[in-house]
Specification:
Length: 675
């Protein structure tokens, strides 16, 4: 041969190659072989020279047509492939072209690895994983592996079906091959996160399915780490949550927007106002809240009909919308009231000018039931954060100003400062500090009813404060004060203790009932409530399922991470967890599935409106269906009429609570009633 073999003859090189290595001429005669190549057939490598490689290693008379060396000879390029010997061994053969300095193909360097064991192990592994695969195939959840941030490993049938491709096509492909470019980028971003942090992540991704439809897929990516803590691969599972999300959005829009005008409703406005107030504090800016009342809406309804009344409301909404700046918000907060939130307004004078512009625009001519009509309105307003820095107080202030505005000539008035209210709050807060020690708190109990049987299934404990001078103060007034001052935790602990003692004494008298307590967001801030509950149950020899807890959505969302742990613990013990006032807050159902919540309590506002208002009815209906779908039970609050009971039964609601069956009352009267 006229090329130089000397590099291969240097022992360090040939030893560095694991496996068999030989140099062949184009007839496949061995020109050089390393020690392993000789040892594999029990001969000195020298003895192999000049013999045909297929004779030596495969025991064949003719070359094997499938051997990749044929391709290298044909194309002059590198080729590799697997070849099985007659005695069942499997070799991986790699062929590198050897050329003269002029580039002419003169021979082949062949490296051969015995991969028989490896293949055997693979087969047994495959059998083993076939069972697992069967399992993976039978679930509707999409499951797939990622071998790096942008490459699929294996996928199950559900995933392949979603992509509308066969599994073989999807497997070991880059994301871009299957997804649109945008989708692939989104997926890749999530993947990078898991690969970098080594932590599980949960994402929601809009992806096109096989029919080109956009579907929302909830994806959980779980990394598998190797011994060094590096990510080896990532297991992904995906569930199509499009329908759930749509239902959620429907609930969302029903709860956040006013149907008639399409403007935000009161709850949503409060939320936006809350955000604006925090922003104003952070950036040291001011803003104004304007409350506007349409005059004579009732007489329009009475004389021209409800249609005309609705048209008036819609038109007023449009006119306000047209007048305010783009960054301002207008909401319809009740039948004839609108509110405007204007950030960045620093002086009362500017707010007044905005208000006057709105009033002027609203007062323009309007045709209602073929008659000319000139709407009239009044506006009360206040400024934040000087006036007050919480939404409720701001609205109260604007409302007080509005009463003044109605009597004033130009129908607009600024809030002048409510010394009386502020001082009442201040004194109440002082008095609360001694209320616990002075035993001024008391618990009332209200029955919760199984709607089917009409029987009591539990009681809700509701706190009452009898103030030595002022008499009974409503929890709606003092609970926020307790929360603000941080006293709520000790009061709620007192409630838990009191309820457990009461349950014990009822049990001793043979009255087996369960009772639930209301927890506040503050209680979820640390684990101490858990300790209080467990020790009190034990001291009173009560099973955990004698006690229930109620939390509102807002509270949960504020402390999501910690709260979910606390709920898990309580629920593991057997304590029933209820989500209070559902529908008033975020009304996002997707997190419900992951939290240990057993009962959803529909807020009384929706139950109250259910029979007259189609939206409320739809909302109640949707909440019940969704809750059942997620395996939760539903309790309707504030049931006051038999007709509501009947309707709730029709809708499949499980439990009810309200004045219809009993007001909150002291424990002794309750006991008497039960007997
Ligand atoms: P909540 O947990 O939503 O309690 C239900 C409220 O609805 C109670 O008001 C109850 O008296 C009232 N209610 C019950 N049935 C009807 C009905 O048929 N119609 C109407 N219109 N109302 C009904 P209450 O007792 O004034 O309590 C107000 C809120 O104060 C409670 O709302 C709860 O969030 C909080 N609260 C009460 N006790 C405690 C407590 O011990 N700890 C904490 N953290 N919060 C408490
Ligand atoms: Ca409650
Ligand atoms: Ca409630």
């Amino acid at each position: 041969m006229d090329f130089d073999l000397s590099p291969f003859q240097q022992s360090d090189l040939s030893d560095a190659v694991t496996g068999l290595m030989a140099v062949l001429d184009l007839e496949l005669r061995i020109q050089w072989a390393n020690r392993a190549a000789g040892e594999s057939v029990g001969e000195d490598p020298e003895n192999l020279l000049g013999r045909y490689c297929y004779q030596v290693w495969l025991g064949r008379d003719t070359p094997c047509e499938q051997c990749p060396v044929q391709s290298t000879i044909r194309t002059g390029m590198y080729h590799k492939g697997e070849v099985e010997s007659p005695d069942g061994k499997v070799f991986l053969i790699k062929n590198y072209p050897l050329r003269t300095p002029e580039g002419e193909l003169k021979g082949i360097t062949e490296v051969t690895l015995d991969i028989t064991e490896y293949r055997r192990a693979e087969v047994s592994l495959r059998r083993q994983s076939e069972k697992q695969a069967l399992l993976l195939e039978s679930v509707p959840t999409q499951i797939w592996y990622l071998t790096d941030v942008e490459t699929y490993g294996t996928v199950n049938q559900a995933r392949a079906d979603f992509c509308g491709l066969s599994r073989e096509v999807v497997e070991y492909k880059k994301l871009w091959y299957i997804l649109s470019e945008d989708e692939a980028w989104v997926c890749r971003d999530g993947n990078i996160l898991v690969f970098q942090s080594g932590e599980l992540i949960c994402t929601e991704e809009w992806l096109h399915n096989a029919s080109g439809e956009q579907r929302l897929v909830e994806i959980i990516k779980t990394p598998k780490l190797d011994a060094n803590g590096k990510v080896e691969y990532v297991v992904c599972s995906g569930s199509d949550i499009t329908e759930r999300k749509r239902a959620e959005e429907r609930v969302y829009s029903l709860t956040k927007f006013d149907n008639l005008t399409g403007l935000p409703n009161r709850e949503f406005f409060l939320e936006l106002l809350g955000q604006a107030v925090s922003r104003s504090k952070r950036f040291d800016e001011c803003g104004a809240v304007l409350l506007m009342n349409i005059e004579r809406l009732k007489s329009v309804n009475d004389t021209l009909g409800e249609q005309a009344g609705n048209e008036l409301i819609r038109e007023v909404g449009r006119r306000i919308w047209d007048t305010i700046r783009e960054q301002d918000t207008v909401a319809r907060v009740s039948g004839d009231e609108f509110m405007i939130l204007a950030e960045g307004i620093e002086t009362g004078e500017k707010a007044r000018r905005l208000g006057l512009r709105v009033l002027e625009r609203i007062g323009g001519e309007l045709e209602l039931s073929h008659r000319q009509f000139y709407p009239e309105a009044s506006i009360g307003f206040t400024l934040f954060p000087h006036g007050a820095s919480d939404p409720d107080s701001l609205i109260k202030q604007a409302d007080m100003a509005l009463s003044g505005a109605k009597k004033s000539a130009n129908r607009i008035q600024q809030f002048a400062g409510d010394e009386e209210g502020i001082s009442r709050e201040f004194h109440l807060e002082q008095d609360l500090k001694s209320a616990l020690a002075n035993e001024e708190f008391q618990l009332f109990y209200q029955p919760q009813i199984d709607l089917q049987s009409g029987k009591i299934v539990g009681l809700e404990a509701l706190i009452r404060w009898s103030h030595p001078q002022r008499g009974l103060v409503s929890p709606g007034e003092f609970i926020p004060l307790l929360e603000r001052s941080g006293m709520i935790a000790s009061v709620d602990a007192w409630v838990v203790r009191k309820v457990c003692e009461q349950l014990r004494s009822w049990r001793d008298e043979g009255f087996l009932v369960r009772a639930s307590v209301n927890l506040s967001a503050r209680d979820l801030g640390n684990d101490s409530i858990i300790g209080v509950i467990s020790s009190t149950l034990e001291e009173n020899r009560l099973p955990a399922d004698a006690l229930g807890v109620e939390l509102t959505e807002t509270e949960l969302m504020e402390n999501m991470d910690r709260a979910s742990g606390i709920l898990r613990t309580l629920s593991d013990w057997g304590i029933r967890v209820a989500l209070d006032d559902f529908g008033k807050g975020y009304s996002c159902l997707s997190y419900l599935q992951r939290l240990d919540i057993h009962v959803i309590k529909i807020d009384k506002e929706f139950v109250a409106g259910m029979l007259e208002n189609a939206d409320s009815l739809t909302l109640v209906q949707t909440i019940i269906a969704m809750a059942h779908n997620l395996g939760k039970e539903v309790l309707a609050e504030g049931v006051e009429q038999r007709e509501q009971w009947q309707k709730l039964l029709e809708l499949g609601c499980d439990y009810g609570q309200g004045f219809l069956w009993g007001r909150p009352q002291p424990p002794d009267t309750l006991k008497v009633q039960e007997e």
